[in-house]
Amino acid sequence: MPSRPAMQFIPNPAPETWPSLQQRPAAGEAPQVAARVRAIFEQVRAGGDAALRQLAAELDKATLTNLLVSEAEFAAAIAQVPAELQAAIRQAKANIEAFHTAQREPEIRLETMPGVVCSRRSVPVQRVGLYVPGGTAPLFSTLLMLGVPARLAGCPEVVVCTPPQLDGSISPVILFVAQLLGIDKVVKAGGAQAVAALALGTPSVPAVDKIFGPGNRYVTAAKQLAAAEYGVAIDMPAGPSEVLVIADSSANPAFVAADLLSQAEHGPDSQVIVLSDSQEVLEKVQAEVLSQLETLPRRKVAAQALENSRAILLPDAAAMLAFSNQYAPEHLIIATDNADAQATQVTNAGSVFLGNLTPEAVGDYASGTNHTLPTSGYARQYSGVSLDSFVKKITFQRLSSVGLQAIGPVVETMAEAEGLVAHARAVTVRLASLAAGSASNGTALMAKPANPYAGLIRPSVERMQAYSSARDEFEGLAPVMLDANENSLGSVGPDDFSRYPDPHQRAIKADLALIKGVSPDQIFLGNGSDEAIDLLVRLTCTPGQDSIVICPPTYGMYEVAANLNDVRVKRLPLTADFQLPANAAATLAASKAKLVFLCSPNNPTGNLLAQEAIETILANFRGLVVVDEAYADFADALSWISRLTEFPRLVVLQTFSKAWGLAGLRLGVAYASPTLISYFNKIKPPYNISAATQQHALAALANAPQLPGMRAELLQGREWLGQQLSQLPIVEHIFPSDANFLLVRFNVDATAAYDELSSRGIVVRNRTTQPGCAGCLRLTVGTASENAQLVQALAEIGTAVPTN
Q1: Is 330 considered catalytic here?
Q2: Domain membership of residue 713 as a residue range
Q3: Is 331 labeled as catalytic in the residue annotation?
Q4: Which residue, 63, 119, 344, 475, has fewest beta-carbon neighbours within 10 Å?
Q5: pLDDT tens readout for residues 550-566
């Protein structure tokens, strides 16, 4: 070995000595660190912003007048970041987004037994604090690693804390990344005091629900204190950086040395360990470490870290993997000739880098994985930061009477066995109520007819033979396709439209089913939702004989479809606050209509219809209940898709035109029972969805994880537009909206206001003739620029139109 080893060399240590070799450098200082951190928390609790400024002067040697980064500082940052670095950051951001987007999970929905439906969906953590280490090396990459998944998860409030530089500024690169991610609250605070501020809150720093980010031992201790005593969640204990390298005779010593130094330069309390079954490799690694160390700008920091680092000779690969799993490193590099096979035996590690060409540095910056990882052996219990770190998984359950009758006795038995009588009683009283209802009706309360659609489907549809296209008789492609009378001389290639499209859109339904938590046979795809509306009328209503019910003000195509098919329209008007009337279920039950259309969120009013009212209709109305959810993605309510199993006569309509931003595709979706969908397929045109539409829809489904971000941006725009409109004198009332538009009542002539807007090149929808909408315009939420133009125009024309 070299005469001046950079790392302690330990040959063939006995397994019982391994724990002592795996001690982290700062372990012995834990009590002193904890005491100092507790004192800082008390100081921040008592002094708030003033304490943060005082600690910045004491610990960071920075004099601060404002704790928050100003707009001017943000504006100046971009010019200070070289174009080459900006491009590199954008590429890293794209890779991180791609990897974390793939981590999204669709809503899980399962009927565990008949009538017992359980589901789980992800909800973003509402307020998150991101700690970005600064000090001698501002780690803007950490902001990428934390900010990207926070934005993808849709966290509404994101606060960044990072230490100030000596002049009281924040690194321009950190500010550039913050702007790139759309984060505008950056606090000039580092160390334990930043964590204290995020946990406790101060006048400038909002208290958060969860704190993320790595840091030194003080930051780690502060996060643990925040979690233990202040009820603030943390991502994990992520302290001083560390790496363990497993190197066999195939390893390149220069590569290994570079990897060790890349972690050693983080800080004096970092730790690096190299294991090998070859003493020659260890000697060469040691020599390379000494050689490369001399040229490092941060060689003093790295040299201090090397004093606590080790080169350990072990007999074979099994021993090296056993040592590594016991050590549980933050970063594990397997620089061997069979790294992939050995990786299957890794049980404890934050992130693993396989082969001689995979430096740990790629994970730190740009491969796409997250570099915020558990240290100090916590990889035995914790994972690194991921998209899951920024969401909560909430479970839901719903029972029908069938479900309660099936599972109720099970719950009663178990609750009584535990001596929890009230638990059992909560079931018993419901079962008794069902039994009483059954007795009074003389029938089983929730007994379902053998065919829930008896008398609902047009007799002519029941009798008809469905059209069978060529693609129904032969699926897929063959070398010679002469079955469909296509023009085989048409164009070829990726945009070849000479062939008929898949008439059943199988690939779209498969992808959509995973996202929505249904089966493909519960999905019908139409040429816009309007095709599904038309088919529903034709499927159930005999012309000149049957009727449908609509609830004005509502979407106009329901009535158009009825008129085109010579079907009567009955109206059940909404109340003044645009809800279903109290007698809605009784009125519908007496109507003998075949269909009722319920638009929720409603168009043009934007509000959700009350869940209880719809449930009552579903329980009592014998026709099909169509819940049109074109705008449901902008609302917080659970989709009625989750109730399809419970209510066989329920049909849910959705569309790609709204939240997906793909109105030009003209792709609508109906969700219903497989039996109802089979009727849709029986009467639909043979190739109702074009090949081009199918291609674009599949591309959109592949990018489905981006929808929450788009939704969040649009809802922010809706909130801003509502706030601005409420300040205009000509606005009388803004109706609550769960859609991507606002219904606004004006105290001036709404039609004149509409004409004035049109003359300025701004087109909205005049709804003043709709029932209950007198004086109203419907304003779609546009881009930030379009919203601003609309508000400015309304402000200017306020005095140019006559009052009501």
Answers
A1: yes
A2: 708-797
A3: yes
A4: 344
A5: 999 999 999 999 999 99
